[in-house]
Amino acid sequence: MARIEWVKARLDNWARWRCQMAGNGLGFSSQSSFLNDAPGTEREAKIPLDEIEASVTHEGIEALKLSRPHVYEVLYCMYPFGLGVSGTCRRLECDRSNVYALLDVADRLLATWFSERAERQEATRAAIKRSFTT
Predict the structure, then answer these.
(1) Rounded to 5 degrees, what angle do the CA atoms 47, 4, 82 make?
(2) pTM beyond cutoff 0.70
(3) Host domain of residue 72
(4) Ramachandran region of residue 97, left (φ > 0), alpha (ψ -120 to 50) or beta?
(5) Which of 74, 87, 107 is nearest to 1 (CA)?
(6) CA-CA distance, 62 to 33, in Å (whole number)?
(7) How many structural domains does the chain have?
(8) What are the pLDDT digits (tens) for 51-62?
């Protein structure tokens, strides 16, 4: 099955956030983005890191830890550890088809988790709004 692109993009953002977290102790920037480049230097464009989205994605992935440990392990091997499919197969001692299947399951589980989270937040907002209007 094809990957869910918006979930994959969130996982890529989460992986960069986790790597930054491993280097700095926190997942957040260690300096102002205005101080990154010296004046007059040409560098490649940097992909902005959405730290809030990454932390929410991290919550969703951590929610899989107990209920779906294989999915959780595949996500960590593929994204922050950067092992790729072959490295993940070796580390988890499984076939490529299993890794692809688990990534598909991860996409679907996380898409459901994100939508349920959004629904809970909307219900909370509506309840707060009702409490102020009555």
Answers:
(1) 55
(2) yes
(3) 5-26+50-133
(4) alpha
(5) 107
(6) 29
(7) 1
(8) 999 999 999 999
